[in-house]
Protein: ATP-dependent RNA helicase
Amino acid sequence: MFATLRRCPASLSRNVSTAAFSYRVLRSALSQSSPAVWRTPARTPTVTIAAFHRSAIRWQEVAASATAEEVEVDNTLVTKFEDLKTRGLIHPNIVDTITRDMKLTTMTDVQTRTINEALSGSDVIAQARTGTGKTLGFLIPTVQKIISENPELGKKVRGYKRAKPNDIRAIIISPTRELAEQIAVEAAKLTFNTGILVQVAVGGTQKREMLRKVQREGCHLLIGTPGRLADILSDPYSGVEAPHLNSLVLDEADRLLDAGFDKEIEEIKKYLPDTKEVDRQTLMFSATVPRDVVDLVRKTLKPGFHFAQCVKEDEVQTHERVPQKVIHVKALENIMPTLYEMISKEIKKGEETGRPFKAILYFNSTAEVTLAAKVFAMLTRSKRQMFRNRIENNENPFSRTRTYEIHAKLTQAGRTRASDSFRHAESAILFSSDVTARGMDFPNVTHVIQVGLPRDRETYIHRLGRTARAGKEGEGWLVANPLERNEIGKRLRGMKLSPETSSEIAHLDLTTENELPENVASLIGKVVDAHQDVDPEILNSAFLGFFGSYQWHGDKEGLVEMAKRWALHGWNYSSTPSPPATLYNSGRRGGSRGGSFQRSSGGFSRGGDRQSSGGFGDRRSGGGFSGDRQSRGGFGGDRQSRGGFGADRQSRGGFEPRGGYGDRPARGGNGDRPQREGYGDRRSGGNRYSKPDYA
Structure:
């Protein structure tokens, strides 16, 4: 099967500026239905927007009026990985790894469009979204190019493999550490049966350790983030050089530019060999092709590059086809119990339908991520909750669902471990900041739950894009508090959000005495208990972080009152730190500065006399889980060695529990806790949601 390959002639006008080379030109040129492969001119002409009408029709007219060079080429595209071997395009060891070890047989559309073209030696820019197989789309031709220049690398070396630190043949630039690590994992799999050495250079890790590894083992394929790559290549003492580099890959090009990495990219290019002396292939992938990406294309790709548009004009985007729901909660203290309630239902539903629940929960601050992760960890694994479930004869819905957290403040090893564990888990919850919102591919995510209104529409869409991938179904939830009700329509204009009203807890007023069904009161009690088991430093960070997330809100006094109510009724704490001084433009400060907590006798009831509630039994007799916590500096006791919460905190103004944890002189197993009233004699208050008469 043959088709015509047309190249735009060099005779096009050269007397105008290349700055006008626009995204619409790229897009219209490649979105035609013609089977011809369109390329940029072999010698780059300077073309204005006037030379190309904005429509695809005008582009066709201009191209048709030019003198075209016709070349007969075999246009039969390879779509099966095995055919890459039979045609001699890819080394057999690479193909065998793909088909035998990775269990892949047929290429995705993105892989078909990019691999075939890249193997011809052309520079390629591909407009492709994450989750479409684009990683292999650039790894396969990159690895093959390395082997083509040194066939010995196609064979697996027995024993210790070693190269030189200046033997780098390919560099892949990624916008984030997580994405770079993910690419490196795929590269290691792909090159397992070869002699190619893969190294990673990302921020957040020890530069010295990374350099030692490269100097000791050498490197053929280097994958990293722009800042770290620029750092090590510009360091004259690193010994890391790329004088023979033949491949450069820029993944998520639009995101690289959005993050302001254009200077780092130019810096990296300074330390690469001159393309006039060493021929280099550049592959660029981007979900969108705005003007700044077009500028980068013009500065980086060789004339005659191929543009593979793998996003169809009429393709329905994720946010247009995924069901989206908004859960309006009455107050901040309703959020965690509502999440626990709704997620528990979805886990059970997944067990019934055979599609395990797997969700990413996005929060707007690192402190919120950490708090939520710790609370759910307590809900699923703490001795207190296991004991309570046993007393209530309830099965823990989270017994087969793991929880992980990921955010920028974790070490790189911790982030990698969390993302890998979640990626391979069948049923799991990932508590995340926006570090996973773009570029990360997690299979079989059934739900994306955004807690709090994201900063803009684009962030909302990118987060939502983590579900319903690879033809799978998914859904999105937005949990919104009263502060955000009027803001949703402004920030998320055009999003089709339908109200979700099935929650029994979302609309409850947790500040008043109410009669609740036993299961609802028990669930709320579990969540409050879990907060009391969380390190107060984490609570402190979440409390203060709240004000940063809502700096845009005009009613500062209202924010303070809402936050104090959150701590009082959601965590069982009455004394809170002062809000940050920056909250008030006038410099006024609010909130309390430490102080001791006085129990409130009000609370939820299940219809009985609350004074007979015994929680986990009378704690004076040693019931429940107690312990001497002096060494940890729990929620009370002498905490001077740690400067924590409780005890003498006038200097900091931290949290004090509402009687939930009294003097804890040491941390033991189930010892005597004479001063703790939390779940024993409840006449003075305690956790208002605990189930009565456990003793």
Summary: The chain is about 35% helix and 10% strand. Residues 2-74 form one domain. Residues 335-353 form the longest helix (19 residues). The chain has four domains: 2-74, 81-309, 318-508, 558-695.
